[in-house]
Structures are given as structure tokens and as C-alpha cells.
Amino acid sequence: MRYKGVLLLFFVLFAAMTGRAQYLHQPGDKALDFEGVTVNGETYHLYDTQAERVILCFWAVDCDYCHDFLKSLRRHRCRLKGYELVTFALADNPDEVRKEAKKLRLHGYHFFDPAGWDSAPFLDYDINITPTVILLDKDKNIIGEAYDWDEFKALITHE
């Protein structure tokens, strides 16, 4: 009997340690504010935007799956009137981000931080996979999160 209790305790601790350490982006929560300078030299402050919806997209320039998502986003831009795109890219340098954003024809605000996964936005939103997309309403409340185009499409269809 003692063995079962220890085993149960082990599984509870394992689940707690392997789950997300923080739940910083749950639906209804206020998004964490940030401001900075984009790879194109534009100053951006999340809480100053007047967009009806903000798409926060965490991606990597060498991730084909990320490119597929961003291409789908671009193709459906006409359905996304009033949406503003803000991306945080994993790359070797800001020139790579500029080049990929231009190549993908992404209109929006694109950020690069040499700290990569350890940059403030990735840590603040507990991002551990790309692409990760967080959708915000006009008041900067989190509507939901998606990891691919189908999840994102369902999110914007059912909001």
C-alpha cells in the first residue's frame, strides 16, 4: 500500500513539473503589455494599438510549418479586416526576419531578439513551440491560442 502512495505522489509531481510552468495566456486574461522597435525600425506598443484584434505570432524563420501557417494567414487576410499582426521571430539576426517577412509578404510588426527562446516575449507567454499564435481582442484580452492554421481558423470562426 505504501508503494502505491509513493507512486501516486511521483505521478502527481511529474505531471506538475512537465506541464506548463505558468498559465499566462488563458482566455479572458489580460495580455502582457510590451513595447519595442521592430526589425524595420518602427516603434510599437501593444496597449497603444486601436486594432479590433491582434494576432501575436511566435515563429522561427527556419520552420517550414511556421511558413505554412503564415502563408495561410496572408491568403486569408481579406477575411481578417481589423486584425493586426505582431510577430516574434527566432532567427540568427534581424536581417533574416526582415527578409523572410518580405518574402512571405507579411504586413505587420516583426520583432527579433538575439536571446531567442529566452527573450522576454517568449518567456512572458511561456512559448515552447513554433508556431504559437495568441489572439487578442481590442481590449488586449486573450481570446485563445492556436498552433496551426486549422486551430486558428476555428478560433476566429467561433470567437
Note down, in words, how this protein is organized.
The termini are far apart. This protein has a 5-stranded mixed beta sheet with strand order 5-4-3-6-7, covered by helices on one side. Helix content is 33%, strand content 23%. It has 159 residues and is of the alpha/beta class. The chain has a single domain (24-157), classed as 3-Layer(aba) Sandwich (Glutaredoxin), CATH 3.40.30. Residues 5-23 have low confidence and may be disordered. The protein has helices spanning 2-18, 64-75, 94-103, 120-124, 149-157, and strands at residues 35-37, 43-45, 53-60, 83-90, 109-112, 132-137, 142-146.
> What structural class do helix, strand and pairing data support?
alpha/beta
Order of helices and strands: HEEEHEHEHEEH
- Write down the oligomeric state: single chain
What is the CATH architecture term?
Answer: 3-Layer(aba) Sandwich
What is the CA–CA distance across the termini? 48 Å
Relative strand content: 15-25%
CATH superfamily (homologous) name: Glutaredoxin
The low-confidence runs, each spanning 5 or more residues with pLDDT under 50, are 5-23
Strands, total number: 7
Overall structural domain count: 1
Main sheet record: 5 strands, mixed
Global Rg: 18 Å
| Assigned CATH class | Alpha Beta
Q: What shape does the CA trace take?
A: globular
Tally of helical segments: 5
Proportion of helical residues: 25-40%
